[in-house]
Amino acid sequence: MPTEVAGRYVVYLATDVPGTALRCEYAGGAIALPNEVKAQIARHIDALRAKAAAEDREIRLEDRPIARLLGWHAEANYVTLRLGQTGYFHAIASATYRETWKPALQANALAVSVVTRTADGSVLLEQRSSRVAEYPGAYHVIPAGQVEPPNSPVDTVYAELTEELALARPEVAEGRFLGIIQNVTNGKYETIFGLEIQSAWNDARRGNAVDAWATDRVLAIPDTGERVGAWLLDHLDDMVPPGHAALLLYGRARYGKTWYEDMLKRLVAREVAMPPGMLVE
């Protein structure tokens, strides 16, 4: 049963299975958008660029094909995603226009968010740079990124590890698939993964990553239920919703369902005490 968490995201599937248990099939080409929607998307992109210019920020904005989630079904040992195709600009414009679009015109973009555990027992997080188009300056898990056809979410996980952390696949233990969530703000779906790198984190090597520009800094927090739980409570408002969801589902898999249920209750209590927009000092 779907679980909405503090008005930020909805958890549709919480699990803990090998990454190979997630399968996908592409079932169609790009969505055909009417001219009115195309004009709305163009206005949104222009507004993003104007806002960045007014704030003296340089942002990277490039439209490209990305995966669109059409549906999924769970079997005894597998979860299969049905995917189509949309564009990145369509996806980010959803934050403004999705409530006015008919269901058939929704972007329903699909991305991955990955909780990375180091060999010395830390979980990696990032603070996003001012150059990203979405959530500049916010905290997120790392790596994360859009699924681009014809790649699968699992393909994307390992590609993003290389692009954002300069890690090669042999340096990483096999990932775990932890669930599916939806960002309430923009309607984007995220497949959540957890994995472990076979070394301690050395931030110096990140400078070799292709997408190092997208991250201001990488943080490492101890992989304990107490510390991860405290982070989730303290950073509900300044963390990207899918990143928050990824940490929560990672905690469910690592610290147990009792920890998870307790965190859901504590997040609801915190939300009642401090509505969206009020940051923890």
Strand content: 25-35%
Going by CATH, the homologous superfamily would be Nucleoside Triphosphate Pyrophosphohydrolase
Main structural class: alpha+beta
User: What is the level-2 CATH architecture name?
Assistant: Alpha-Beta Complex
Tally of discrete structural domains: 1
Helix share of residues? 25-40%
Termini gap: 34 Å
How many strands in all? Answer: 12
Shape summary: globular
- Provide the CATH top-level class: Alpha Beta
Main sheet: strands, sense, barrel: 9 strands, mixed
Rg from alpha-carbon coordinates: 18 Å
What does this protein structure show overall?
A hairpin with a 4-residue loop joins strand 4 (65-74) and strand 5 (79-87). The longest helix is centred in the N-terminal third of the chain and has 20 residues, at 35-54. Mean pLDDT is 92; it is low at 273-281. The chain has helices at residues 35-54, 88-97, 153-165, 225-234, 241-255, 257-273, and strands at residues 3-5, 9-18, 22-30, 65-74, 79-87, 110-117, 122-128, 139-141, 144-146, 176-183, 189-196, 215-222. The protein has a single domain (3-273), classed as Nucleoside Triphosphate Pyrophosphohydrolase (Alpha-Beta Complex), CATH 3.90.79.10. 30% of the residues lie in helices and 31% in strands. It contains six helices and twelve strands. The strands form two sheets. Strands 1, 2, 6, 7, 8, 9, 10, 11 and 12 form a nine-stranded mixed sheet that branches. The chain has a three-stranded mixed sheet with strand order 3-5-4. The radius of gyration is 18 Å and the shape is globular. With 281 residues, the chain is of the alpha+beta class. Helix 1 (35-54) crosses helix 2 (88-97), helix 4 (225-234) packs antiparallel against helix 5 and helix 4 packs parallel to helix 6.
